[in-house]
Amino acid sequence: MLKKIAAGALALSLTAVPVAHAQSSSSPNSSAPSTSNVSGPIYRAVAGVGADAQSVNFSWRSAYAGAEFVRYYPVSDPTAAQQVPSREADYGAIAYLSRFAEVHDLTPGVTYEYQIGSDDGGWSKPETFTIDDGDDNWTFVAVTDAQIGVDLKVAEQAVNWRQTAANAAAAAPDASMFLSLGDQVEGWGDLIGSNGQYNAFFSAPQLRNFRFAAIPGNHETYPSELSTRHFKEHWNLPNELGDTSNYFFEQNNALFIALNSNNKDDAGLEQQAQFVRDTVASHGGDKDWVIVLDHFAFHSHGGRYTSSDIVRMRNKLSPVFSEVGVDLVLNGHDHMHNRSYLMNGLTPKVPEAPAAPGDVLTKDKGETLYLTLNTAGGGKFYDYQGNDGKEYPGMTLAESRERGLNQPTIAFWNQDYTTDYSVVNVSDDKLNIRSVNSADGSLVDDVTLVRSGQTAEPSDEKPNVPAEESSS
């Protein structure tokens, strides 16, 4: 059964920032809203991940038709300002103008301030991001399925999403980046109007103050495939394979491979499989970790474990992930938390002790861990579905084990019907993923990966108290 959860009693005051020479769109259907993701002519801006740890791929919408730039400098030295020109990103959206620009060769450990725009058209308000110090100990945040707009409740789900993003940033203030694993928006309903789903998602300031990556989910294709143009125009993807939305980037000692799992027919899966093989062969040799981002959940009790699409994806891609040495696959889609056993292709490695938060998993060659994360927006949740195909509202992990209802590849699951985020701590010898209930800061799951021959102590970090959503 699909659960619909109302937003909590959270409030946010948003104000527009006036900028000299600001111009408004002449279109009667202008999608520029009067919220904090707007500054002058610039709106729905994101400081996206670049090809490597010292790069940023910017994307923004503009109400100004002239040339625009990204102007940036170290906060410690404004006199060192540089600017790069943008180009129009036209994938067929007609209600707004999108622009892309890239900045490369940034200095590790430096905080940069930037503005987007031009002297003639106006500049956005200053924003900052920090390039991490470039060593092999670093952190990133993973979220999924903000899916703003379920049941047309854009405003309250936007509040939930901003709160989740704020809590994640408070828990990991030094995070190198945020990753969003698809379904940023609902799709049906108002997508790009002033109170629409894209404006609501982009209203989280973390999209401009952290390097941010996203992959498309199935809701990026709703109400029709034409809607994918909005994803393409909003995300300046590094190292993209043609126009597929399959892309990769490198971050310190990790290689990230982002897949467009909407292409789930045989040809699309073969293309993804070959992209993974080629990317690991070309860029994975000097990396400690290979991480795949894929929207659809291969191992989840969210109701789709036996669906034909999921079975086909699992059967086709899982052996490839093990073949090339993928360590971790991060999934969304099912709006509940699930952790697989270590999987060698389609075969689970089942330990004697039942899985629990705090597990340290020693992985052998060819073994991959799959994690499905819960929603960051809270518009809907899915009940547990057992291996008998029945749904069990309110089912607990303990009871599902006692009754033998768990799927054979799933080690641990949690459904508390609240929003979550995950903080991933990376080092050369371990990968720790700590998933947290955003509503109260309680622990959802904590699992550490080490390779055979290495040891690691369980994480003893405590979740942070949820942050109050600040006004801007």
Please outline what is shown here:
By secondary structure, the protein is an alpha+beta fold. The chain has helices at 154-171, 197-202, 206-209, 228-234, 266-283, 308-324, 397-402, and strands at 2-3, 38-39, 42-49, 56-62, 69-74, 82-85, 87-88, 97-103, 111-118, 122-123, 127-130, 138-143, 177-180, 211-214, 247-251, 254-258, 289-293, 328-331, 337-340, 342-344, 347-349, 359-363, 367-372, 381-382, 384-385, 391-392, 410-414, 420-426, 431-437, 443-451. The protein folds into 2 domains: 38-130, Immunoglobulins (Immunoglobulin-like), CATH 2.60.40.10; 138-451, Metallo-dependent phosphatases (Purple Acid Phosphatase, chain A, domain 2, 4-Layer Sandwich), CATH 3.60.21.
Gross CATH architecture of the largest domain: 4-Layer Sandwich
Unreliable segments of 5+ consecutive residues: 1-36, 461-466, 468-472
Shape: globular
CATH homologous superfamily assignment of the largest domain: Metallo-dependent phosphatases
Structural class: alpha+beta
How many strand elements?
30
- Please report the distance between the alpha carbons of the first and last residues: 38 Å
Largest beta-sheet characterization: 9 strands, mixed
Strand content: 25-35%
Radius of gyration: 21 Å
CATH domain fold name of the largest domain = Purple Acid Phosphatase, chain A, domain 2
Number of domains: 2
